[in-house]
Design goal:
0% of the residues lie in helices and 63% in strands. With 270 residues, it is mostly beta strands. The protein has a twelve-stranded antiparallel β-barrel with strand order 1-2-3-5-6-7-8-9-10-11-12-13.
């Protein structure tokens, strides 16, 4: 049961301007040696407001994203994650920041009602194109990011699970480093999968849009947020499934606020 849903935890890789990816870069499940999943997804964010520093202002943007995501089991307890997103804002579109992550299990314990595991993940991401970084059509910050994160995962015999992860992102200047944390709770059975998640990011330093002193480039912006989201997945055939997800920025700093909706397909092979 674990292997059927190991990628669904991070299917909705919501890529938006300046900030990229929510609900964690990796999950708590493992693929198993020789198993691979390819996720083809896309979505839209209908942003009506923008947090300029601590002030919420009216800024309307429709953000489209598409993503190809690959998760592969190199060994039973070592997984590789690859992702390449495309983002379009105000008719300005580009491939954004590609990423590669390795995740290895450090501890595993069988408990009376389930299993507990602790994993460590290490990854790197960076821009794949010289995309727009300034103004309301900014695709991102073109940051080179080294990401280190522990992942704590519990899976019960009844299919309920919880995944908690923390991360420190070392980013290339002038983009400020950040601390990230996320919590996901859901259930995975042979017939369906669903989850609800919370994600938070705090940057260490950085400047504000319309702030004092004014940033010379959007790369200097700190991007903080509190997000909530949910994902639903159902298998269609033995090696094909479909998902839908949504998320919303509750509050933040230098980030848009609006409903984000994603859909896609999951192709499995071994």
């Amino acid at each position: 049961m674990h292997k059927q849903f190991c990628s669904i935890l991070i299917l909705v890789l919501s890529t938006i301007a300046i900030n990229s990816y929510s609900q964690g870069r990796v999950d708590g499940f493992y693929k198993g040696k020789g198993n691979t999943e390819i996720v083809l997804g896309g979505g839209t964010e209908f942003a009506k407001r923008y947090f300029a520093g601590n002030d919420k202002i009216s800024v309307s943007r429709t953000i489209y994203n598409a993503n190809i995501f690959i998760a592969a089991g190199l060994f039973n307890k070592l997984d590789l994650y690859l992702s390449t997103p495309y983002v379009s804002i105000n008719k300005t579109g580009s491939i954004q920041d590609g990423s590669a992550f390795l995740k290895a299990e450090a501890l595993h314990r069988k408990l009376s009602h389930g299993e507990l595991s602790i994993s460590m993940a290490l990854g790197f991401s960076g821009n794949l194109a010289n995309y727009q970084t300034e103004g309301l059509s900014a695709i991102g910050q073109q940051a080179k990011v080294l990401d280190i994160r522990p992942v704590v995962h519990y899976f019960s015999k009844g299919g309920w699970f919880g995944t908690l992860q923390f991360a420190y992102g070392y980013k290339s200047d002038p983009v400020p480093d950040c601390i990230n944390g996320s919590l996901k709770i859901g259930r995975a059975t042979s017939k369906l999968y669903f989850d609800v998640w919370y994600d938070h990011q705090t940057c260490l330093g950085g400047l504000d849009y319309r702030g004092t002193p004014a940033p010379s480039t959007f790369k200097e912006l700190r991007v903080n947020y509190h997000k909530l989201g949910a994902t639903f997945y159902s298998p269609i055939f033995e090696r094909l499934g479909a998902f839908a997800g949504t998320s919303y920025v509750i509050t933040g700093r230098n980030i848009g606020q609006g409903i984000n909706v994603n859909i896609g397909l999951v192709l499995k092979s071994n």
